Amino acid sequence: MLIRNLLVASFVVLFAAPHAGAEDLDLQLRYQEETRPGAGRFHRLVREETWAPEETALIVCDVWDLHHCLNAVRRVEEFGPRLAKVIDEARRRGVTIIHAPSDCMAAYEDHPARRRAQQTPKADNLPADITAWCSRIPSEEKGIYPIDQSDGGEDDDPEDHAEWAAKLKAMGRNPATPWKRQSDLIPIDGERDYISDRGDEVWSILEERGVENVILTGVHTNMCVLGRPFGLRQMARNGKNVVLMRDMTDTMYNPQRWPSVSHFSGTDLIVSHIEKYVCPTITSDQLIGGAPFRFAIDKRPHLAIVIAEDEYKTEETLPVFAQQYLDKNFRVSYVFGSETERNTLPGLVEALHDADALLISVRRRLLPPPQMKAIKAFVAAGKPVIGLRTASHAFSLRGNEAPEGLVAWPAWDAQVLGGNYTGHHGNKLTSQVRIAPGAADHPILKGIPREPFQQGGSLYKTSPLAEETTALLLGQIEGQPEEPAAWTFQREDGGRSFYTSLGHVGDFGNPPFQRLLLNGIHWAAGLPIRDDVSTAGRTDYEQHWSLLPVPASWEAASAGVLEDYDGIGWYRCVVRLPEQWLSGKQLTLKLPSDEDSLTAWMNGATLEAKSNNGNDFIAIIPADAVIPDDYNLLVIRVEDRGGPGGLQQTPLLSAGDEQLTLAGPWQFRLGDDRSWSNMPLPARFGASTDVIFEP
């Protein structure tokens, strides 16, 4: 034992000594914190931390040599050289480097970095399930998973994909799993690095090296980087100070799937989910300088949306609007007013640091000097500003002086928006909005009906406007003069501004307003006005999987949207069952079915029902249809033949004396596509965190 301990001690000294006194890692960790408990809105904040390199590891997750998705290969080829520089710099400073190309250990059987990992003494404190995939940690139960990745996330052009699959086959690779080793773009130092795809080995390396801080990078964020045994979830729930390097990663997301945003916006949504519920993030420039990495074809301007008003619920309406209409063409971030201190906008300075456009929905807030300085610098730089309703009096106090330590901007309306807000007409007075004379051909009015439409809220008094404005819409109350309701403004600093006094909660349900705001944002940002816009009401349940609570009728669960719908609906969730539940026991699914006809599948295998249609639905689940201690897809097809439809009673899985009730959110979809009985890939990869049930 003494000899073994001496060898281990020598091993530690051998690899730690050259880095004594190495340069610390000064990092800016970005994280998100709820504006108040249960609000569902988050401040995006940054905190500074200094990490000792000898207590830090960088894990490179699944940066494979080849992939079944051609676009995924292209993206790795683009960011791979920069990732190599990050790894070199981290290694130079004394950070432990662990290469984790899963399922590729055979290629490294004789590699010294692989042997080094295998020879690391097994830690005495191995966490439970450290060798298992992890699809959710408890903190994620509070959130809604932001994308649908159940199709595997392929975003290739179909013809390109077919050619790529044929090429892989010609290379002797399996087109579905073509990876054999880590990409050659990422060099491995055989004298110092480690190679492992096992959670227990990686954990033991961290413990043996005294590592408390972990940086995760690689692909793909929404699958492997989060879920692998050495991934973000396992590191976070087992107490490591873990971060994601958010610009050295990528997602598997198909823009044709919900929420139908661009591929890069899909990555942003996953990064945001991680910052809210899993761990903070950093960027590569914090190690190697320069600017954060950005893919060459990601041309989205960064739109910062700042919301701090108590009148019109834009904290609810604007994020929904942005997801529906802006996430295709913009990188959107949000800044919300503090819930505890009226005159501060947490995260504003950081958001404006690299913002390309600013949308303001703020009412009578004063700001600390650094925040007001950031806004004034943004405007002075000639960048575009979009003002919504109360933005006309965003930073003024009706002529009162600002208290000490806070700054007002009473001339904001005139200087930045070109307006002249002096109050509004009564809230109960109905106003009609029409296109201003001579403005019909303005790009912002593309798709706006030529006939007048009703405004959702009170009419603002905004005239006279500055000379450099162009009025687009006029609003009128009977017996009162017309008032400008939307206009553009060419500022003295050279920047463009667009403002509309519309923006009441009632306006957001009005297609003309939706199109106006969308067009105005595109115009201000210098983007072409989109043609492919439909602001008519859409049936979300027909277009993608949506969350519905179970048990409940779909009429009640959809808040009446599906009232009187008689037809077919599909439900799906994911279950994880312990092996001891299944060993030697029969697993059954039981569901009181009322008058509906039910069909069920487990991992694509049809479940044979003992009874159905008017009686309890009871089905035997074959043992070979379930993967123990793993994530399994359960799908139920409901054929409603009249009356309330849906899963109105709680489904129940039973194995001997063990029971798992499946009450909670399920994914739901209208239609009748038999392919929905399964996913193209295992549930551990394709499932979202919000529909997982486990003991």
What descriptive keywords fit this protein?
alpha/beta, Rossmann fold, Jelly Rolls, 24% strand, 18 helices, seven-stranded mixed β-sheet, disordered N terminus, globular, 695 residues, nine-stranded mixed β-sheet, 3 domains
| Head-to-tail CA distance between termini | 42 Å
CATH topology of the largest domain: Rossmann fold
Number of helices: 18
For this structure, what is the CATH homologous superfamily of the largest domain? Isochorismatase-like
Indicate the CATH architecture of the largest domain. Answer: 3-Layer(aba) Sandwich
CATH class category label of the largest domain? Alpha Beta
Q: Biggest sheet, open or closed, and with what strands and sense?
A: 9 strands, mixed
* Proportion of beta-strand residues: 15-25%
Strand order of the largest sheet: 10-9-11-12-17-16-15-13-14
Return Rg in Å: 28 Å
Principal-axes geometry comes out as globular
Written account of the structure:
There is one protein chain. The chain is of the alpha/beta class. The chain folds into three domains: 2-34 and 49-287, 3-Layer(aba) Sandwich (Rossmann fold); 302-525, 3-Layer(aba) Sandwich (Rossmann fold), CATH 3.40.50; 541-693, Jelly Rolls (Sandwich). Strands 10-9-11-12-17-16-15-13-14 form a nine-stranded mixed beta sheet. Strands 18, 20, 22, 23, 26, 30 and 31 form a seven-stranded mixed beta sheet that branches. A six-stranded parallel beta sheet has the order 5-4-3-6-7-8. Helix 12 (369-380) links the parallel strand 11 and strand 12. The radius of gyration is 28 Å and the shape is globular. The two termini are 42 Å apart.
